[in-house]
Hints:
Blueprint: E1 9-11, H1 14-22, E2 29-32, H2 34-39, E3 48-49, H3 58-63, E4 68-72, H4 77-85, E5 90-93, H5 98-111, H6 115-136, E6 143-150, E7 153-155, H7 158-166, E8 170-171, H8 181-187, E9 191-194, H9 205-211, H10 218-221, E10 225-228, H11 230-234, H12 240-251, E11 262-264
Parallel strand pairs: 1-2, 1-4, 2-3, 4-5, 6-8, 6-9, 9-10
Antiparallel strand pairs: 6-7, 10-11
Helix pairs in contact: 5-6, 6-12, 7-12
Amino acid sequence: MSDYVPRRVVSLQPSATVILRDLGRLDCLVACTKYCAEVCPEVCGKTAIVADSWTAQSRQISIARPDLVIAAVPYQEKAVAEILKSGARFLGLAPKSLADIYGDIAAIAGIMGDRGEGLRVIEKMRSAIDAVRKRAERLPRPRVFCEEWGKPLISSQLWVAELVEAAGGEFIGRPGAQTDAGAVEAAAPEVLITAWCGAGDRVPLEKIIAKRKWGNIPAVRNGRVCCIRDEYLNTPAPTLISGLHALAGAIHPECFPQAVGLRCINSSA
C-alpha cells in the first residue's frame, strides 16, 4: 500500500462508513459513530465509538490516531474546529443530489487508492436505479409527499426526490425545505411517505394523520400512507438502493413487491 493511502480512518457519518464497506475497506476503519454501527453492523465490536459530525470531539479522534477523518453535513462550526484540532487529514462531504453522492464515492475511493472499485460501486447504484426507472416509466405518476422530519415539517432531500421520480412518482414540494400541514394538504398527495431522521421505522403514522387533520388527503382516504426506515432514505450512500425499492413498493404496490423497511398504515408488515 502506498504511503499516501490512509491506513487508519475515522468515520463520523454513516454514509462514509457504508461507502467504505462497499469499497471493501472496513479494514482501515478504526473508529466510527454509534449511528454507523446501526446502519453497518459489520463494525460492531471492531472499532471505537466516537461522537458524530455534529458533536465531534478532538480528544476522541486523536486517541484513534487516524490519518483520515471523514465527516458530512450537518456540521456545527465548533465540531469542525474539533475535527481540525485532531491534526488528521479531513474530508468533509455535503451531498445534495445523486450526482453528488456518486462524486463522494469516487472521492473516498480515490483517497483510499481504489478508484476502480469506486467506479464499480457507482455503476452498481446507477444500474439499480435505471432498472427501477425502466419498470416504472409507463406507469401512472401519483403525487408523492415525502418528509424527513415531522416537527417542523421538512421535505426529504433532493436525492430522495430523484429516487421518487425513478420509482414512478411525482415529488411534490421543494426538497429539503420546511413546509406545513396546510401546504401539504393543498397539494393533495396521493402517496404520503415518512422517513424521519433517527426514527428507524417507528414513525406514528395514525397519530400524525390525526394531529395534522389530514383525513381528507387522497393518500389517507386510499390507505397510501407509509413509513420507510430512515437510514434507507437519509443515508447518502449505496444504502439508498434499499430506499428506492421501498419507495417503488409504496408508490406502485401493484407492480413492485413489498420491500424490506416499508410499513404502510393499512399493513402490519
